[in-house]
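Per reviewer request, we include the raw input and output of the structure prediction for the construct analysed in the revised manuscript.
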Amino acid sequence: MEYPLETPSPDSSRQVLSPVRRGAVLIQIDFGEPGGGERLQEFRQLVESAGVTVLAEIQGRRRAPDAATFAGSGKVAEVADVVRDLRAEFAIFNHELSPAQQRNLEGQLDCRAVDRSSLILDIFAQRARSHEGKLQVELAQLQHLSTRLVRGWTHLERQKGGIGLRGPGETQLETDRRLIGKRVKYLRERLARLERQRGVRRRARTRREMLAVSLVGYTNAGKSTLFNALTHAGAFCADQLFATLDTTSRRLYLGEVGSIVVSDTVGFIRDLPHSLIAAFHATLEETASADLLVHVVDSSSADRDQQIDSVNAVLAEIGAAEVPQIMVWNKVDVTGAAPGVERDDCGTIRRVRLSAVTGEGVGELREALAEVARGRGRSPLHPEYERESAVAGESPF
């Protein structure tokens, strides 16, 4: 039996978006935070980026999360009805769930309960292409999983003595915890070696006095499109969240100023999992060690102020809050604003308005970068334009 599309009443919190297909029911609870509509739209894009079909969206309102089920018994019962009717495989929450809440929800909903952190980690696992990127994603996943072993896996809380991996009387839970610990130790050692290699390349670049510029910003703000417009690198671009995961760097020639290194990085997002930030510590240092950050903003987004705050919060967490920034307001072709450069009372460049798609204003950004390089006294390196891959491990962030 298929369910037709429904037009919800004004007071309804349920919206069925598609006929019955195997997919996910999305749940978002309002705790009085602003921008609920933008958060829901972003949540839907995250789920679609993970390759999951959105079957229905359910919203609710609470003063505080329920300790047992996060959403409360009444809302969980409503979700359970929709999950059963649509035969959904997942119930995905736009929130962080504790291990106990996840276990309780899966018992009541009879399907997998997935929180926001697990969803983002899954997207990163699908998109990681470089060796280091895969190692870092695996480390983040294992660190996240280890917190779920304590209460979530009660079916493993039985002793199984045996020969081989388990010692006498060791529980399956203890075995899994021990194996995860061994794998985490190996991943950290491997990433530490790669971090030392990247440090050698960074010191060599410093000796050559090359200005290091990192493109940062909210996911899907247009960083890769701008990177291609500046360097003609041909980096992958798509209108989706986390289209770019592996950091790519190119040398950009700026006339008499010489060359600088421009790096395209993965986009940030609000409520980025702390396990992901910890796992990507090595490559996050690349952003923190940059001489200049080009903060790309989707000026057409109604949520741009909150997105800017989210990016700055992550930058502060990784120690990059003091790195100088040039704010780039991208997508003026959508907003209708005129491309150009804005300066403060001291004549310092604060904002560049441009369109990475049409190329309007990209020349002004190049001039702004040359001005910064000139002001820092960088020496010209090569008279010719040399596009050289300087991929620092090709890893996220």
